[in-house]
Structures are given as structure tokens and as C-alpha cells.
Amino acid sequence: MSNPTPYLRIRTGTAPKAGLNSTGTLSYAILKDADSAEAYFLVTGNSSAGYYSRVTVPFARIEAALAHLTEDQAFPAKTLKPAFPSGKSANDPGFLLALLRHEGLLSPAPEGAHLSVRTGDWAAWKAAVLAEAGEPFELPTKQIKTPMTAAEPTSASITAALPVTVHKGKKGRKDRAGHAHPTATAAEDEHHDPAA
């Protein structure tokens, strides 16, 4: 029941994440369709925490997402959200931004590293991708949960299971250095990083 894949892989790469507080790298592939009509971006791996969608992002949709901006106008990663189908990972626009920077199509804006501006020759980049022969490429079928993300519930349950000594009559007091009072919400406690 599987159809032959219509994609050809032009190249693969590894890009550093673009977020100000992000660590790790993203593996990706540059693809084209069998008719050499469209180029695509695809995240294929994440060296650190965070979901990513295993969807091809057509270059034309990236261009359309930025079409309302002037050529030198700075923009945040969320501007790329329309390039993805709805309901995909919240990380996708930021991850795509990292790939576009790595390919020389975007650069950090002078206004701040959290913003980007278009750079390079987009038409020449696309023409070069479509001119390559490429090799057959089969798309992955599922979204990936990285090892670090998979380990988080275990870490959280260990943190939640730590014994807390409650001192009667001392409301609002911290019972141990660096640990919130037992009345603190679980969300507040999750932000505490003992390694920081």
C-alpha cells in the first residue's frame, strides 16, 4: 500500500539552534520533489530536548510566510508558523529559523539576536537545489521524542518524591535551602534547577 516516495535528498546538514537559551543542534535534510519543481526543508534529528514535526516544509510556504515583510525587516521565529500545517509542534518555527540561518538565508537582526532578517540570494539558493540530481529519500512517519525529553518525566517524579520536612506553625517558610515550601505548585518547583 506504500507509494514510491516523491522526494529526492539533495543534502543533509547540522545546524546550531537559534534560540537565545537553546543548546544543541538540529539535523536536517534539504529535499526536492521528483519533478524538480519545489525545494523542501525537513528536520531529521534533535541533539537535545524538544519535539519536532517530521513534515516537509516547502520553500514556497516559507517565502509566503515572509511575503508581507519588507526585504530588510526584522522578524521573530513565530512569523514562520504559517509555513507548517496547523497543530504541529510549537518548536517548529524556531527550528526552521535555525535551518534557514545555517543555509545562509537568514541572519540575526541588528536589533537583537532573537530577531532575524533575510540574507543571501533566495532565488539562486532554490535554483541550485532544484538543479541537483539528488537521491531517493523516504520520509519518516512519526514525530520524535528526544532522549532528553523522554527522561524528563523520570526526573520530575524523582524531584516530586524527595522528602520534605514540614515545620508546624511556620507558614511560607522554606523548609530546606533551594526548595520551595510544600504549598508551592508543581509548576513552580519544576523551574528550580539544582544544577544551575
Structure overview:
This protein is α+β, with helices and mostly antiparallel strands. 25% of the residues lie in helices and 22% in strands. It contains five helices and seven strands. It has helices at 59-66, 92-102, 122-131, 147-161, 186-190; strands spanning 7-16, 25-33, 39-46, 57-58, 106-109, 112-118, 135-137. The strands form two sheets. A five-stranded antiparallel beta sheet has the order 4-3-2-1-7. β2 and β3 (39-46) form a beta hairpin. The protein is globular and about 40 Å long. The model is unreliable at 143-168 and 170-196 (pLDDT under 50).
Strand and helix map with partners:
Layout: E1 7-16, E2 25-33, E3 39-46, E4 57-58, H1 59-66, H2 92-102, E5 106-109, E6 112-118, H3 122-131, E7 135-137, H4 147-161, H5 186-190
Cα-based radius of gyration, to the nearest Å: 22 Å
Number of strands: 7
Q: Quickly count the helices.
A: 5
* Largest β-sheet summary: 5 strands, antiparallel
Indicate the structural class. alpha+beta
Strand-residue fraction? 15-25%
